[in-house]
Amino acid sequence: MTDQKKTSAGGAALQDFISRLDVEILGVASLAEWKGTRLEETALRLLPQSRSVVVLAMEIYPEILNLTSPGRVMGEASLNDLLDRNSEYLNSRLTRSAYDVAKASRKLGLKSLPLPASGCPMDARFLKAVFSYKHAGQAAGMGEIGWHSLLITPDFGSRVRLSCCLTEAKLEPTRPVKVDFECKECGLCVKSCPSGAIIEPKDGESYDINKFACSSYRGAAGGCAECMRVCPAGR
User: How far is CA 60 from CA 92, 112, 122, in A?
Assistant: First the structure.
């Protein structure tokens, strides 16, 4: 069997497998549709044989997120810890699913690289991960990136955790979904950001955020999720 036939035949089998994964949102981006973009460049740098990106998402419960606050008193019980534990649980589920996709792909004789929901390598000089899950999610039609630089999905807004899997399989890309929300008519994340890191973007740009101010504040405050908490997007 030629490599082209193998990736196509394997893609059909893998497509069926991923459709049955226990995640809340599933998206597929075909790199053939994103030639010359940073998405293709970073994917091929990690796995030169990449043809598709599988993106997996699970919901962060609003009941937990609504208990968070951007600050803590030394020694006082912090409800932000509930969000941390929730994120750890979701990360473990999503990472396992990414590895399940990779395992299924490799069983079909196709190269694959699972990327964990937490701990993706990052260039500390620019606070830039080696692969952007949110941009992959947008390319996979799962939603759109908002002013707070988070992926906004139709059902859960920005309250999602993500993981990815790069694969040599030729998969059918998922079609874009409509996000019925306009950041320019809201702006709550800009007004509510305690570090002042979120700025209204210039025309033609999706977001403008000072990642160093955001990271420094989160470290000093013991965590912060205000932009996600106040975002009214989602059903």
Answer: 13, 27, 23
Which residues in 133-169 are b (16+ Cβ under 10 Å) and which e? bbbbbbbbbbbbbbbbbbbbbbbbbbbbbbbbbbbbb
The pLDDT of residue 78 is above 90: no
228 within 8 A of 148, measured Cβ to Cβ: yes
- CA gap 146, 189 in Å, rounded: 10
- Give which of 188, 230, 190, 196 is closest to 213, Cα–Cα: 196
Instruction: Tell me the pLDDT band of 75, cut-offs 50, 70 and 90.
Output: confident
Q: Which class for 120: exposed (0-12), middle (13-18), buried (19 or more C-beta within 10 A)?
A: middle
Report how far residue 117's alpha carbon sits from residue 93's, in angstroms, rounded to the nearest whole number: 9
pTM for the predicted model, two decimal places: 0.93
**Per-residue pLDDT reduced to its tens digit, 178-225:** 899 999 999 999 999 999 999 999 999 999 999 999 999 999 888 899
Q: What is the pLDDT of residue 83?
A: 95
Cβ atoms of 6 and 105 within 8 Å: the answer is no
Helix axis angle for 3-18 and 80-107, nearest 10°, is 140
Rg of the Cα atoms in the chain: 18
Closest CA to 68 of 172, 221, 208, 232: 221
Q: Are 195 and 217 in contact (CB under 8 A)?
A: yes
Asked if residues 167 and 101 have their Cβ atoms less than 8 Å apart, the reply is yes
pLDDT value of residue 70: 85
Alpha carbon distance 79, 64 (integer Å) = 8
